[in-house]
Design a protein that fits this description.
The chain is α+β, with helices and mostly antiparallel strands and about 400 residues long. About 30% of the residues lie in helices and about 20% in strands. The protein has 2 domains: about 130 residues, no CATH class; about 180 residues, no CATH class.
Amino acid sequence: MGRVKAWMMEQDKRGYRSIEDKYVCSKCVSDYAIKEFIKENCSYNECSYCERKSKKEISVHFDEFSEFVLEGISTEFGDPHDECVGWEQGWVGEVFDSYDLLQDEIGIELESEDLFKDLVESLSDRQWCKRNFYGLSPSQTLKYGWSRFVGIIKHKSRYVFLGVSEEEDASEHIPTNRFLDAFGAVAKRLKLVRNLPAGSDLFRLRMHGPEVSLSSAAELGSPPDDVCIFANRMSPAGISMFYCAPDKETCVLETYDPDGEKHCGTFGRFNNVRNLTLLDITKIPASPSMFESGSRDMRHSIIFFREFLADFTQKVSKDGREHIEYVPTQVISEYVRYALRIGTARIDGIVYRSSHNTKKEAIVLFFDSETCGNSGESKPGTELILVDTSRQTFTSADA
């Protein structure tokens, strides 16, 4: 009995039950971090699950595998007793057994059903809940902060929100007046920056009547301040910016609204005169595995940014409410323009996914009409040069 008790105490201390004489190879798992762990630590030449054998070392003992998986799980899930989850004839809150945790919450992918069964058995009859059970995860804190930020600047305080005080406990959310700094910190952490080399092609499309002919930078570049009467995704009425795309197709998607009639439009191809630094929110990395110890601090930042982008690029109907719906992205854009620095670089614009085709990129540059010039001209402050133009007739089939 003493030996059994000692064995059980050792098992409790480890957190998993030993399964002897079984070995796991990297081909039996899908998660890249677990694969890498097995490859770096293999010391056996057979796999008990795919029955592969080799003259080389290809597998780790099941207990090593189970311990590594448990270490990753424990970064985000813990024991409901330790997290002080309430009990009233059952847990008061979301608690999982090992099977549901692995299958549904984590979605761990193993190539062998027997390996999954052994892992569940190894974790025994443990129960799990999220860590900091009554609080918010880092990604939830950011998401909730964004939601509050949007609500306040759309419907409460649009221009002086930095001074808005909030009565709620700030330990459980990001106060509205600090959200932009939190956003900037995530952008820096993820290194969301792109260099646009001088001389890159940037296309703009302006729709017009059949009798109109456009050929100058003044006509095809950023609109003058006094004609910026419509709100755009990144700029409110009255503030001129240079909306463009690296290809004509995206210009059509972003500009042409088919109504069954024929319309004329003119493309302007511009080149930037210097290297530009852009905030690129199209290249969000894949969310790191919870089993990759070196990237766990990035995981929640990426989870938040992916959810944030769904709001950032959503379609907005031009029915008058765009003056409200565009406010959050306009504020983010202004923050990026005037306050955000990545390294020492000042940001010249933002690359984002087209709301009409998320496989396409659109760009906004923080350049007004005074920065657009014609080829061959030389004037101070010129950032963009009109290289050439092309005219096109559009029908609904071009949408």
